[in-house]
Amino acid sequence: MSARPKLLLVGVVAVAAAASASCTDPVRDAAVAELGPEDPNVPPGPDHRPGQPCLLCHSENGVASDSPMAVAGTVYTDKDGKKGLADVEVSFVDARNGGPIEKIVTSDSGNFFVPVAKWSPPGLSYPFRVAIVKDGKVLQAMASTVNREGSCNYCHRPPDAPSSLTDEERKRRFTLPVYAGSP
Ligand code: HEC
Ligand code: HEC
C-alpha cells in the first residue's frame, strides 16, 4: 500500500525530466519557422523582430530562453503598423495589482519588453490590463483583459511584419497592430 505511490511518483519525475531534456517542440518550431529569418540589418536585441510574438522565443524552452520575458510587443504610430512608435509608456495592472518594477517605454522600433525578473509581485498573474500612455495621458487602452498570452503580437500583427504566412492567413489569424492613435 505504501510502496506503490512512491513508485508512481518516481515514474512521473522520470517522464518530466525526459520531456524537459528534449528541446523539440514541433508546434513551437513551426511557429518560429513561420516568422522567417532575422532581418540581417538588425542584430538580435531590443529592436529586432518588431511585430512578432516575442515570447515564442523569449520563454522557457524557447531559443532565447536565457532572456525570458513576462510580456513584450510592439507599438505602432497607427493601424497600418508600418512605423514603430518610440517613447510611449506601456502600463500594466495584473490580477494581483502587480506590474513591471520600472516604467516600460518603447524603443526606436516601437518594441518594448518586461523581463520575467522585473515583474512584481514575482510572476505575472493573469489576467492583466494594458494601456499605452504618454505624459500621464492614456492614448489607447485595451478594453478587455489579456488572459493568458504575454506576447501582444500573438494577436496584434502588423501586415508588414516579417512572416512566411500569406496575406489571407494573416487576416484570418490576427487583429490590428497595437497603435497609439493620435495623441
Ligand atoms: C524567433 C525567435 C525570436 C523572436 C520572435 C524574438 N526574439 Fe529576441 N532574441 C532571440 C535570440 C535568439 C536572441 C539572442 C540570444 C538571447 O539573447 O537569448 C534574442 C535577443 C533579444 C534581446 C537581447 C537579450 C539579452 O539579454 O541580451 C532582446 C532585448 C530581445 N531579443 C527582444 C525581443 C523582442 C522585444 C521581441 C519581440 C518584438 C523579440 N526579441 C522577438 C530570438 C527571438
Ligand atoms: C489574446 C489576444 C490579445 C493579446 C495577447 C493582446 N491583445 Fe490587445 N487587443 C486584442 C483585441 C481583440 C482587441 C480589441 C478589443 C479590445 O480592445 O478589447 C485589443 C485591443 C487593444 C488595444 C486598443 C486599441 C487597439 O489597438 O485596438 C490596445 C492598446 C491593446 N490591445 C494593447 C495590447 C498590448 C500592449 C498587448 C500586450 C501586452 C496586448 N494588447 C495583447 C487582443 C489581444
General description of the model:
The structure is a single chain. The chain has 183 residues and is of the alpha+beta class. The chain has one domain. It is built from three helices and seven strands, in the order ααβββββββα. It has a three-stranded antiparallel beta sheet with strand order 2-6-7, with no helix packed on it. A hairpin with a 2-residue loop joins β6 and β7. The radius of gyration is 19 Å and the shape is globular. 28% of the residues are buried. About 9% of the residues have low confidence.
Give a short summary of the structure.
This protein is α+β, with helices and mostly antiparallel strands and 183 residues long. The chain is built from 3 helices and 7 strands, in the order ααβββββββα.
Write the layout of secondary structure elements.
Blueprint: H1 3-21, H2 26-35, E1 69-74, E2 89-93, E3 99-100, E4 111-115, E5 119-120, E6 129-134, E7 137-141, H3 167-173
Antiparallel strand pairs: 1-4, 2-6, 3-5, 6-7
The structure holds heme C (2 copies).
